[in-house]
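Summary for the lay section of the report: proteins are chains of building blocks that fold into shapes. Here we show the chain for Integrase catalytic domain-containing protein and then a coded description of the shape we predicted for it.
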Amino acid sequence: MIRDTFVLKFTHHRGLYILRPYADQINSCLVRQPTPKLVQWHLRLAHLNFGAIKQAARDDYNCEVCEVAKARRMSYKNTKPCRTQVPLERVHIDKGGPITPPTFGGKMHYELYVDEGTRYKWLFLLTSKSESLTNLKKFHVSVERQHDYKLKTIMTDNAKEYMSKELNAYCSGIGIEQL
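The coded shape description reads as follows.
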């Protein structure tokens, strides 16, 4: 807004208004004068009174919504589960089946053993799911004879076959931990 200056000049001629350039024409009508900050905040805050705006500027105010909106996910170090490097320290066992059609020997289930330290895998075919204890005994004896390491821990998915009293008694009797 320009005060006390003429920008445009109109003359009246035969019932019409004619726009005539004014000699001291200024292009400042295109440039806006800066508004004081207090007035800007007064307008932005829906015409809040100036005393309340000054009080808000003095207070150390933290907006929780703004903080949450600006928050970023914390960076976490790569926290992979601790994988053992020692052979036979932890062996994972899982069972699957029934397989259709059955094998030529009539086997319908399988049991997979995975050594966590070496990632070596053993696959055994089973006639029924109840063979898991005899299969574990055979696996335990053959693996410890072939290597200088002892089987320390077996990790299962807590299926019924792995929760039997006989399997628990066998493992606790020879010092194998069950997870």
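Put simply, here is one thing we learned. The CA atoms of residues 7 and 23 lie 9 Å apart.
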